[in-house]
Structure formats: structure tokens, C-alpha cells
Amino acid sequence: MWFLALLLVAAMLATLFILIKGLVNMAGTTSQDLEGTGDGPSPRALKSQKLMQQRILLQAVAIGIIALILMMLSAKG
Fold first, then answer.
1. Comparing C-alpha atoms, which of 19, 1, 9, 3 is closest to residue 57?
2. Does the structure show a pLDDT above 80 at 68?
3. Are 68 and 4 contacting, i.e. CB atoms less than 8 angstroms apart?
4. Tell me, what's the pLDDT at 51?
5. 19: closest CA among 70, 72, 61, 58?
6. How far apart are CA 49 and CA 54, in angstroms?
7. Residues with Cβ < 8 Å from 21, sequence gap 6 or more?
8. Phi, psi dihedrals of residue 28, rounded to the nearest 5°
9. Which of 1, 7, 19, 63 reaches 20 to 30 Å from 37, CA-CA?
């Protein structure tokens, strides 16, 4: 049980770290990044998309760990 609690804290901290990285990336967006050059998405937009996907994955991992902890607790009691 303690191992799952530590995994949950690690997943939550990793999610927070990726969220902050995404916010910093978004704060550095320039008007040139928003307007684009017609060659597709800017490198900053691609990085933002990658960070968002990582954040969603980490959130799913954290929710999965929470579900596992709750199932274990309901089986004991």
C-alpha cells in the first residue's frame, strides 16, 4: 500500500512538473508563433502539444493508481 502511495505522489509531482513546463512554454509564445509561416505548426506549438499529451498520460496514470488503491481498500474492509 505504501508503495502505491509513493507511486501516486510521484505521478502527481510529475504531472505538476509537466504542467509548469507547459505554462512556461505557453508564456514564451510570440505573435510570430501564433501567425505561423504557412509551413505547418511552429516548433513551439509542437512542443506544447507534446507536453499536453504527456500531462494527460500522467494524469491517467495517477487516476489508475487511485483506482487501484481504492479497490485494495474496499477488498480489505
1. 19
2. yes
3. yes
4. 97
5. 58
6. 9
7. 51
8. -90, 5
9. 19
| Angular region, 41: left φ>0, alpha ψ -120 to 50, beta rest | beta
Does 69 have pLDDT greater than 90? yes
Asked if residues 65 and 7 have their Cβ atoms less than 8 Å apart, the reply is yes
Distance of alpha carbon 23 from alpha carbon 48, whole angstroms:
9
Nearest Cα to Cα of residue 26 among 60, 2, 50: 50
- Cell numbers found for residue 22: 507547459
Q: Please write the tens of the pLDDT for every residue from 1-58.
A: 899 999 999 999 999 999 999 999 999 888 877 777 778 888 888 999 999 999 999 9
